[in-house]
Structure formats: structure tokens, C-alpha cells
Amino acid sequence: MHIRPFTAADAPALANLFRRSVLEIGSRDYTPEQVAAWAGPQSNAESLAARLGDGRLALVATDDAGHVQAFGDLEADGHIDFLYASPEAAGTGIAAAVYEALERAAREKGLSRLYTEASEAARRFFLKRGFAVLSRRAFEVRGVPIHNYAMEKIL
Q1: Which domains are seen in the chain, by residue range?
Q2: Reduced to 3 states, what is the DSSP secondary structure of residue 21?
């Protein structure tokens, strides 16, 4: 496994990984309508490249053959917007390694808090890493009711 900074050339592979992760892993906790709505907006490589290339720290984890297996980001204020693993890499520790690199960077920058909006699966992941649930958030994505969790970790 290798963790490296995001480049714009990664965007198509990350968009594909994001979509597959939402559809396959997200379907364990959400309805087909919910995962379809969730997967839609950010599965566009151009919009994902713009978001991840806006100055935030974005990291990509690859296997030894160079295939993208996970990615995550850290915004300047401590917000983790993305942390996704490919379905075949889920549970292998690769997303945890990306998260650990993000937390290490946050500590090096002197941040005192990390926060995120976590899906059901991500909530379980973040709870294991010391995050606390602040609230359950109900909202709509493309007209479909869905929920996630506002979470934070004090560093």
C-alpha cells in the first residue's frame, strides 16, 4: 500500500471508486433510492477534481500495482469531507491508514478538532477512532430523504 497526494489525473478513478463504494457498501445501510441519489452528484470526475484540488489535503491510497483503493481529504478547518475505500478493500485497513495520515497532518497543522458528516458505515468507522456523534442529520439528496451523522473528535 502507498499513500500519496491526490493529483487531477486521479479524478476518474476516484469518481469510480466513490460511486462503487456508495452503491455497494452504502446499500448495506440505505435503500436503493438513497444510494442512487447519494452516488449521483460526486461521481462526476470533473466536479470531484475541482473539490479535491481546491487547496485541501487530499490523499490517495494505492495497492502495490498502483490501483486506487481508497481516498480521503482534510479541509483547512479540520473537516473530513471524503473518506472512501473500494468495496474490495473495505475492512482491510487501507481506509484506516488514510485516516491516520489525515489525523497526523491535522495535528501537525495544530488543529484542535476534526469533524465530519458520516454515513451509517462511516459512523461505525469513526466511532472506533474516537469520534463522538453530535447529532443525526435528516435531509434530502436530489429529492430523496436520507440521513447521516454530524461527528467530531477533539485532538
Answers
A1: 2-110 (3.40.630.30)
A2: helix
Q: Is the pTM of this model over 0.90?
A: yes
CA-derived radius of gyration, the chain: 15
- Closest-CA residue to 42 (of 78, 83, 3): 83
pLDDT at 44: 87
Question: Quick one: pLDDT at residue 21?
Answer: 95
Q: How far apart are CA 121 and CA 119, in angstroms?
A: 5
Distances (CA, A) of 129 to 46, 99, 125, 132, 153: 31, 9, 7, 9, 8
Short-list 150, 124, 121, 95, CA closest to 26: 121
Strands (E), the chain: 2-5, 57-62, 68-74, 79-80, 83-85, 113-118, 132-141, 144-154
Amino acid occupying residue 102: L
**Residue 40 half-sphere exposure, CB side, CA atoms within 13 Å?**
11
